[in-house]
Amino acid sequence: MSVLRQRAEAGRPVRAVPAPVPAPASVPASAPAPVPASAPAPVPAPRWALAERLDRWLGDPGDGAGPFSYAAAARADAAEEFPWAACAALDRLGVRHYYVPAQYGGALTGLPQLLEIVRTLARRDLTTAVGHGKTFLGAVSVWVAEDRAGAERLAGLVCSGESVSLGLTERTHGSDLMAGEVVAEHTPDGYRISGEKWLINNATRGRLLCLLARTSAEGGPRGFSLLLVDKDELPAGTYRTLPKVRTLGIRGADISGIAFDGAPVGRGCLVGREGEGPETVLKSLQITRSLCTALSLGAADHGLRLAYGFAAGRELFGRRLLDLPMARRTLAESYADLLAAEALSIVAARSIHTLPGELSVTSAVAKYLVPTVVDGLLGRLRGVLGARSFLSDHHAHGRFQKLERDHRIVGIFDGNTMVNLYALTAQFRTLARHPPDAAPAPIPDADAAPAPDADAAPAPDPAAEAGRRPQPDAHRVTFGLGEPLPELRPGLLSLFARHGSTLAAALPACAAALETAAAHDKRLALAARQARILRAASRELHARMGAARLLPGGAPVESFDLARGYSACLAAACALGLWQHNPGLGHGDPVWLEAVLDRLLSRLEDAVPGSTGPLPRPLGAQEEVREPLYERLLERMAEQYAAGELFSLLPCRTAEGPPC
């Protein structure tokens, strides 16, 4: 049994300064005894303790001999080979147990655990992180459906080493799931599957496939179902895997497909109830979209570490590159972008537990904003590295060009940027009815029927509706990193956030708290002023969202700009919430908050010009404030780099340690 899993099963939080991880034991052949479903999630540690332990076990990535080294990743990428050795080592460590909820015998007691694990893997190699972590994406619909018999069977297979893929997309329909042509015809014993799924991660190497198939000839939202297909149980000749598709990034990943020709499966393969496939998939994607940000966080740290190290050691015209003002500002702003993305990611992962009824909004913001921010961050760092950002083997194993190629996929899978922005525009009217300055809706008794809502989806049962409403302590539990999380409640996930966003609604209270604190601490004056601007901008933004109207062909262009602006405001609320509920975050220095809010205000202004103040503005009006701000932030970044720590709001020692 793995050391990581032993601690999870014992219900013990992984605290700071953990014991070293010894050589891993083999993965057990069957699922371990389940932990009671009522077991609480562990109290978050004051550092990224699980990530630190995992990273230490993976070893120094600069050591070319190990499967998790930068050199090994570069070799596999050049050969377009799947990272078999790295994935096998992760299996021996027991990482795949974290893809299974504890109630079904796994080690996963809180979704933030996956944020730590996937980020750690992505910092080494995005191909490995995507290839191994895909099993959670394939399995999560089964966990959401809450079919205990099917979930326990799948849990045993995952924990014993089997991989799961998710079969959604088809060659001619892409993300239009309602146009799917893979058919599951009814038979006396179950279903007969025919058709082809394409661009499926792990379709060839994975044994299991969670398949969305048409079970009603008419199709429609209730005409598709999910089937968990075990390729080992299909008769010969009833399926074939499709050739691997060559890709620009994650070149070694198994991006292929599968074609069925009358493949018979039993009734026990049905996930949830017939006709609920699309709803289950959409709810499951809310979880995975919230966690995909871990891939971007790992990529951002990798790129920043490369660029900072290069700038610190490179001399131009008798000066270090790091001493040039433009290079310094680029590094500092990129660091601030990473911290903004991290703050949003932390809160989004915790909100899966605390605010599941609002995850349709939170996940769309996170999945749009974080990969977009990191794509831009890597593009700017390319300018710092210069020609070395394009070299494939003459500098740092060609890591940056591989990293930049690999990360482009993050904004595409699990719903691309436009899909997530559109998901926000579709909820504008509901969000506008619950602006941040509005009083919170009363929390009804479980037996009280909710008020009718003509614009929302059909009302669920009263008890479920009461559970979806934000609870009085939602802000404290979501933002407070020392607060234990409630267990995951998939039944409270909703396709629409009926009561707006509790996270966005936190902005006024957080701004007021910051204003009060600034009266006693002059260091907070800038952050308090930024928060006032954000509060006013958010109020105006919600009014414009409420006035937006859908066109016959969908949302107008302006609505997408408003959705971008809304995302910046919600991310700012997350940063402010973390500051308010975690004294001492960032070593108690508000410079991180000031820089994060500055970057998000700039993003908001770019999306919705004039939203942060009247135009036009004098050229360089903000520079007197920004120059000292980013110089101070760069000092913090330099401290983490010199200490061999992750670029993060929370301490986390990296395996490579301080630079030589």
Q: How far apart are the first and last residues' alpha carbons, in Å?
A: 35 Å
Sheet with most strands: strand arrangement:
1-4-5-8
Kindly report the average pLDDT value. 88
- Uncertain spans, ≥5 residues at pLDDT below 50? 1-45, 439-458
What kind of sheet is the major sheet? 4 strands, mixed
Specify the overall morphology.
globular
Helix content: 40-55%
Give the strand content: 5-15%
What is the count of DSSP helices, taking H or I runs of 4+ residues? 21
The helix/strand class is: alpha+beta
What is the CA-atom radius of gyration, in angstroms?
A: 24 Å
Describe the structure concisely for a colleague.
This protein is of the alpha+beta class and 660 residues long. The chain is built from 21 helices and ten strands.
Topology:
Layout (H helix, E strand, L loop, with lengths): L2 H7 L39 H10 L11 H10 L4 H10 L18 H13 L1 H20 L2 H12 L4 E4 L15 E5 L2 E12 L6 E7 L9 E7 L8 E4 L12 E12 L3 E2 L5 H15 L1 H21 L1 E2 L2 E2 L4 H30 L4 H27 L13 H9 L9 H9 L2 H5 L29 H7 L5 H6 L22 H17 L6 H23 L9 H25 L9 H17 L15 H21 L17
Parallel strand pairs: 1-4
Antiparallel strand pairs: 2-3, 3-7, 4-5, 5-8, 6-7, 9-10
Helix pairs in contact: 2-5, 5-6, 5-9, 6-7, 6-8, 8-11, 9-10, 9-11, 9-12, 10-11, 10-19, 10-20, 10-21, 11-13, 11-19, 13-19, 17-18, 17-19, 18-19, 18-20, 19-20, 20-21
